[in-house]
TrEMBL record:
Record's protein name: Cytidine deaminase
A GO CC term attached to the entry: cytosol
Gene: cdd
Top-level taxonomy: Bacteria, Thermotogati, Deinococcota, Deinococci, Thermales
GO molecular function list: cytidine deaminase activity; identical protein binding; zinc ion binding
Function noted in UniProt: This enzyme scavenges exogenous and endogenous cytidine and 2'-deoxycytidine for UMP synthesis.
The organism's place on the tree of life at top rank: Bacteria
Organism: Thermus scotoductus
Entry-linked Gene3D superfamilies: Cytidine Deaminase, domain 2 (3.40.140.10)
Length: 122
């Protein structure tokens, strides 16, 4: 976990969060590969993109469709993904998929099922 946290922290400065001051980095492990994403805010706040969804987009672009594990880092502490991101992660994962919430002092592990107990699935 320390290696992954180091990777996440190394990419934190690439997040674009001038409005909220809340940078986030996400790493999605999928089918033996890792995909990074950072949050990208916009003055029209609904147009902002979360780090988790950007990491999933990178994964999909690479032709992967199955999330094995998710890591999220913020210097504000271990923070869970927003509701929309939880649903997107569930689309490519399962209720058992681990989500590792990293902060400066350590990490917490939850499953998508714990974070989104009644997620929509086809």
């Amino acid at each position: 976990m320390e290696r992954v946290r180091g990777v996440l922290k190394a990419h934190l400065e690439r997040a674009y969060a001038p409005y909220s001051g809340f940078p986030v980095v996400a790493l999605v492990e999928a089918e033996g590969e890792s995909f990074l994403g950072v949050n990208v805010e916009n003055a029209s706040f609904p147009l902002s993109q979360c780090a988790e969804r950007n990491a999933v987009a990178a994964m999909v672009l690479a032709g992967k469709r199955r999330i094995d594990r998710v890591h999220i880092y913020s210097p504000k502490g271990p923070i869970p993904p927003c509701g929309g991101c939880r649903q997107v992660l569930l689309e490519f994962g399962s209720p058992e998929t681990e989500v590792v919430l990293h902060g400066p002092e350590g990490y917490v592990v939850r499953t998508l099922g714990e974070l989104l107990p009644l997620g929509f699935r086809l």
